[in-house]
Amino acid sequence: MAAMIAHAPILIIAIPLVAAFLTPLVGMASKRARNALVVVSLLFVAFLVFALARDVVTNGIRVYTLGAASPEQTIPTGFIMPVRIILEIDGMSIFMGLIITTVALASLIYSLHFLKGQTGQARFYSLMMLLYAGMMGLAFTGDMFNLFVFLEIASIAGAGLAAYRANMADAVEGGFKYIVVSTIAGLMVLFAVGILYAQYNVLSIAALAHYMQHTLLDIIALGLLGSVFVIKLAAVPLHMWAPDTYTVAPAGVTPMIYTSSAASMYALYRVSFTLYGSTIDTTTLGRVVIALGVLSMFVGVMMAVHQTDIKRLMAYHAISQSGYMLLGVGVGLAVLADPVALANYGRNAINGGIFHMINNALYKGMLFLTAEAIFFRIGTRDLNRMGGLGHKMKCTAGFFIIGALAISGIPPFNGFASKLLIYETVFKFNPVLSVIAMFVSLVTLASFTKVFYSTFTGPEIPAYKEVREVPKSMIIGMGILAACIIFFSIFPGVVMDTIVAPATEALIDQASYISAVMGGVP
Amino acid sequence: MFLVALGYRAGGNAPIYTDVPQGPMVLPVPQALNLTSIVINVAVLALMLTMVIQIHRHTGSLDSEKSRKLKG
After folding, report:
1. ipTM above 0.85?
2. Backbone angles phi, psi at A302, to 5 degrees
3. Which of B51, B67, B69 has the highest number of chain A CBs within 10 A, making it the mutation to test binding with A?
């Protein structure tokens, strides 16, 4: 068991990769075996992630050096700096890993039945595992270049999946937009990595942070990296790809792509806190992040209100919710250099932002799944052509209500817990921001009320008389997420202490991230 | 090119450890990075081209202005 945990970091990335390439081969022999392979490997990885999470929370940062005699030996004998590829898992990485794994499990189980009768299923599962491996790699890596590689893996797999329904012209268009945007983003990362490498001759994040000099070139690299992750997480001025891609991606994929944008948000935090934390003026950076957050929150929700396509509407809400996370963490970043304010409200602001990340991945993922369940049964995403579905699709309607209440921050749901934390702390920083946040929350509720009424209530429409509840595997997929939401709603304190607080601590505590790799090197 | 130029040390030797001559060596890492990024970009390009083919099938045109089903 101990040996397994010691090697868990690489296994968590390697198993889905191997499974991705085995899937089409096994699929040629038997479809059942293929589905079993995918589900079992993901379940096993999920088990590893949970085991590793326990280990990280109790024992602190775990590093894994590829190719070293022992995983803990980050700097080879006779060298003064790390040259090997290092995976570094701290509270924040494992927190991201937990989000990704939960959403991936739910999406995968949901897809099992959703895909029945479609062609190219083997490729779908294969890409799904690749996307999972890419995201986990993004969360676990301690190396700038591997950040780029995993970002590209996740982008390629995500674009392929978004365009999965290639018989629909809009699906291909959405996928194409995603891959173009991602490639540009990827090239910018590569350029930034090049700049950093040219100056310091290392690629490890910890080592870079250790040697960071605060030169003009560093600022340029930060600008490049920052804008890349802002593109990828779809914050407002750079959000144009998100509604298109989220709308057309098949069920099960939308939550995954959404989670990969959360992983980009993780990368943004990792770069701004861990890589640059102590060398740059975090107040300015924090203000930029706050501005982006407020813009995304407000513009996102305003664009959502008038949408008639159910998934497009949800996509704009996703952008708006990302704004909350940016706002919370941005406030924390702005006061990072000021210990009094940090202890006073900064730490809680980061807590709120990060807690909102997991909450949002859960309920937003579930809402996307319910939207696809409706599309699965009636074949349209147009809200004006829906109605009375609550009579037949009771489970879906129930899940939708849970998700809608949670996203609007209605007590006692988990969205309320994290939003309250954000309101309170942001109020201490600047009351106006907090008022905007509450207003946005109100509009969100209004918009979801509209969706609920036009979709589920009203008399039965004759055209949908034959509509039945969605198959079991889809209900289980949504159920996993709903169960998590309810658990988080009842015990927000437990979640906060066990996974959120260590993640915040990991972000703030740059020194121990560095020393985990650099050891005693001056 | 940018990446390879980064690792170049004037008058350096190829970074092959067996039978290494005296003197500075060219940094091997940027070359590895470059190869990786080339491989990745080939994959991206292939994916993009397949999508372009699909779009052409649907719209009968390669003009991106005509591929505008998604709005709003």
Report:
1. no
2. -65, -35
3. B51
